[in-house]
């Protein structure tokens, strides 16, 4: 039997991050030379081992906790030292901090023993400079030989990278067998009641990195939030700390900040992820959105290139320092890869939404040529077979087989479990296209540019085609299909994708109500959030990446659409699922988790290879806050609508420091659900609340 290449598990590892640097170790604080443990910097593992010992013995782990937004602290015991009593008298604290160009560790050994304690503290190191895709495939690089130079210093260099570890007052052993496993060591003597503090640091020099640390400062407002449901406050606090750690920029344009997608696999620019995260963060200001838009606009496609997926006007999928080639020989992606069907429409959506939140005209106008190019891609390149729908197919044989947000190879399945054959027409992508056309038309009109009528006509025709082709009969009544396959047959599984249609304008009021009812079924909503596929479908598995698991961002996006369209009860149910999951994961929502029933264990099952922190999972907390407050501004139209979820079920809620048109505002929602907003610019008003939608006809 051939050996499987298994992606390493990381759900129980402890990470620290200050993008583009991250470090992953075990619960004891050790970084061991296997799996995905290590220190990573911009797609390379720059340290594969950092194991702490006292007298060549590992201390016994006791507990751990955060140490600021970029750090973790580990507490352990050395019970073989000190007094021979049941009470431990020698304690070891290890604090790890990530910085933009490396990590530091502080080791504190303290004693309450009656007699002096003598020990030798050591840290065994290793470096393989393995590329991230090799680690993700379950592989590792050969240990590199270290060079010892100045006292207390050891160094590795290859592929343009230089990694230097310096131990303050440490002795370095890098000779003979220790050339690939160098050791820092410190002799320590502690009198009763004394402690010793030892430090070492890792620094990376990486001139070829395609991403760099963002300038200091969060780049968004930090609101003061009060809530009856304290889970929301704790989730938001942790999420904003994680998002600060994920901020990145390009070396040539440090002023334009975006969010790296996630640790450890995706800590770089990802079109879809960075766009969704910036969109969710709009209640805290428009700076992040503007930076993300400009970064992606600079890399917007200009030519047709099947090898990279590039096309004129198309927005990038991901950016790496080199080609990404997985060990199984299948997936092979170029450094700048455009294999995404939705990022271009999401770019248009972010520009439009940022404008509505108050992005100044002098920042919108330079992006209008890129808007026109994006719409040009939608009209000229996104519909290869001319049937009026947006589809994708990988023509290279080594790119992503699926190019929506559910991009695993088995993500698009019929109800009976069969895989759909490409080209694939995804349901939610048609919603994104409709919204992009309408949003683009609004921007063109507002800034006196031609073409708006063309795109409104495009949207109308797309809605008609979608209504005729996508609605099918399902076990819970009429439903939009997940997709159309190569033969334009509806892929009839029931999935979370249909929730992304809410708020796009593609659905009628009656269709929106039916989708809300489908999203409320136990088959989709019976877990801690929204399952990616219903339990009624043959392809369902609670730990499938895209066919039954729960993704925090997916749940939040759908929750936001439900709230915006006035479907209060299903939105509140998803909100409760997210908050319960957040509590179980210590308020750091991972990339995804299991889709098991809530009653099965009383807590969500971890997905063992889920990234954490993850940008759009963390930003989901801000979208949840916005939906709870019901805050929907339209600065160009001079209005702010208020339709809060908070109130009798979710409790009272208040936020001070959200931003509309660059101005800090304060909003409170009392126990009855009545909102009060203060601090609005004089140019904005709050209209009388509109009545809830009243469906007048049934879905197709």
TrEMBL record:
Residue ranges annotated for the Mannosylglycerate hydrolase MGH1-like glycoside hydrolase domain, each copy included: 308-584
Stretches assigned to the Putative glycogen debranching enzyme N-terminal domain: 17-201
Biased segments, Pro residues type: 688-700
Spans annotated as Disordered: 672-700
Protein name per the record: Glycogen debranching N-terminal domain-containing protein
Organism whose genome encodes this protein: Micromonospora halotolerans
């Amino acid at each position: 039997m051939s050996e499987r290449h298994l992606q390493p598990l990381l759900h129980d590892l402890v990470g620290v991050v200050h993008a583009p640097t991250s470090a992953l170790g075990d619960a004891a604080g050790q970084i061991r030379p296997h799996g995905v443990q290590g220190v990573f910097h911009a797609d390379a593992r720059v340290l594969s081992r950092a194991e702490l010992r006292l007298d060549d013995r590992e201390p016994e782990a006791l507990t751990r906790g955060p140490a600021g937004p970029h750090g973790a602290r580990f507490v352990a015991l050395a019970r073989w030292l000190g007094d021979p009593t049941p009470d431990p008298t020698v304690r070891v604290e290890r604090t790890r901090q990530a910085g933009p160009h490396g990590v530091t560790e502080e080791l504190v050994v303290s004693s309450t023993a009656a007699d002096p304690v003598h020990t030798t503290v050591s840290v065994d190191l290793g470096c393989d400079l393995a590329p991230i895709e090799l680690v993700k495939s379950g592989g590792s690089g050969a240990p590199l030989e270290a060079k010892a130079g100045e006292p207390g210093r050891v160094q590795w260099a290859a592929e343009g990278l230089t990694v230097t570890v310096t131990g303050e007052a440490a002795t370095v052993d890098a000779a003979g067998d220790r050339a690939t496993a160098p050791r820092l060591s410190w002799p320590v003597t502690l009198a009763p009641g004394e402690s010793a503090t030892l430090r070492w640091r890792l620094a990376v020099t990486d001139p070829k990195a395609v991403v760099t640390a963002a300038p200091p400062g969060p780049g968004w407002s930090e609101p003061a939030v009060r809530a009856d449901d304290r889970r929301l406050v704790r989730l938001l606090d942790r999420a904003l700390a994680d998002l600060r750690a994920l901020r990145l920029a390009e070396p040539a344009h440090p002023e334009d900040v975006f969010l790296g997608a996630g640790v450890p696999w995706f800590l770089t620019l990802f079109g879809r992820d960075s766009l969704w995260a910036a969109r969710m963060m709009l209640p805290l200001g428009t700076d992040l959105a503007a930076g993300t838009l400009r970064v992606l606009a600079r890399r917007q496609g200009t030519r047709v290139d099947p090898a990279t997926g590039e096309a004129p006007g198309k927005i990038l999928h991901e950016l790496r320092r080199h080609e990404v080639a997985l060990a199984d020989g299948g997936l092979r992606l170029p450094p700048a890869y455009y294999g995404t069907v939705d990022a271009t429409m999401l770019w248009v959506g972010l520009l439009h939404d940022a404008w509505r939140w108050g992005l100044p005209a002098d920042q919108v106008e330079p992006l209008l040529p890129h808007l026109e190019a994006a719409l040009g891609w939608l009209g000229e390149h996104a519909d290869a077979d001319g049937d009026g729908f947006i589809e994708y197919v990988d023509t290279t044989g080594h790119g992503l087989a699926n190019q929506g947000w559910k991009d695993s190879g088995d993500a698009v399945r019929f109800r009976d479990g069969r895989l759909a054959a490409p080209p694939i027409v995804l349901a939610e992508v048609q919603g994104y296209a409709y919204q992009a056309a309408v949003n683009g038309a609004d921007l063109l009109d507002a800034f006196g540019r031609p073409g708006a009528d063309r795109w409104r006509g495009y949207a109308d025709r797309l809605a008609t085609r979608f209504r005729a082709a996508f609605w099918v009969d399902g076990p819970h009544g009429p439903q939009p299909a997940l997709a159309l396959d190569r033969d334009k047959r509806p892929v009839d599984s029931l999935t979370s994708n249909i929730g992304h249609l809410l708020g796009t304008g593609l659905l009628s009021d009656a269709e929106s109500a039916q989708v809300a009812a489908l999203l409320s079924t136990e088959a989709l909503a019976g877990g801690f959030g929204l399952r990616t596929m219903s339990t009624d479908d043959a392809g369902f598995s609670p730990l499938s990446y895209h066919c039954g698991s729960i993704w925090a961002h997916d749940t939040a996006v759908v929750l936001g659409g439900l709230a915006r369209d006035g479907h209060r009860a299903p939105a509140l149910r998803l909100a409760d699922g997210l908050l319960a999951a957040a509590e179980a994961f210590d308020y750091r929502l991972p990339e995804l988790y299991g889709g098991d029933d809530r009653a099965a264990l009383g807590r969500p099952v971890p997905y063992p290879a889920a990234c954490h922190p993850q940008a759009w999972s963390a930003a989901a907390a801000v979208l949840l806050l916005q939906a709870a407050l019901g805050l929907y501004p339209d600065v160009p139209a001079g209005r702010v609508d208020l339709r809060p979820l908070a109130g009798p079920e979710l409790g009272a809620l208040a936020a001070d420091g959200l931003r509309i048109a660059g101005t800090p505002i304060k909003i409170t929602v009392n126990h009855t659900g009545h909102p009060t907003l203060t601090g609005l610019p004089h140019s904005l008003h709050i209209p009388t609340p509109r009545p809830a939608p009243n469906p007048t006809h049934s879905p197709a």
